[in-house]
Amino acid sequence: MKLAVDVHYGRIIAATGGIAFSDWSDNQETAVYRSLCREPAAYVSGQFFRREMPCILHLLDEHAITPDTIVIDGFVYLDGERVPGLGKHLFDALGQRIPVVGVAKGRYVKAPDSLRVYRGKSHRPLYVTSVGMPVSTARHCIQVMHGAFRIPTLLKRADQVSRGTFS
Q1: What is this structure's pTM?
Q2: CB 163, CB 19: distance < 8 Å
Q3: Maximum Cα–Cα distance for the chain, whole Å?
Q4: What mean pLDDT do residues 115-123 have?
């Protein structure tokens, strides 16, 4: 099972949405998960993982989920290979047993052009990084995900679940 996750922040609470699916090309989830994280850490520039990772770990723990791959909204490596981002920290926190694919909507300053993935008719790329699987495989997996638009269907659903706008 693969799991796409996203976290949405309110003033005093964060909600984490998780969408489970079997195959990269699936258009429907096999399960939907949502968890609330009370008093999330404050955002600190350059340390986004300290805010987001506890919420993702809480979702996995609360629902006893052990996916074979996790897809996050963000970077695994900020520069594509050395500077750890949320995904690398999550991979380490999970004992380096579960591959993590990062799909970022915006470009980090040091992110090379080789991380770009264009989907649908969009002229705006996604930036795909990974750990635990080759980045070329991760890029292909995101490319073949269901959806005619820039953001794959199941990644969009994870965002909607975290915001409480998907049922």
Answers
A1: 0.93
A2: no
A3: 39
A4: 93
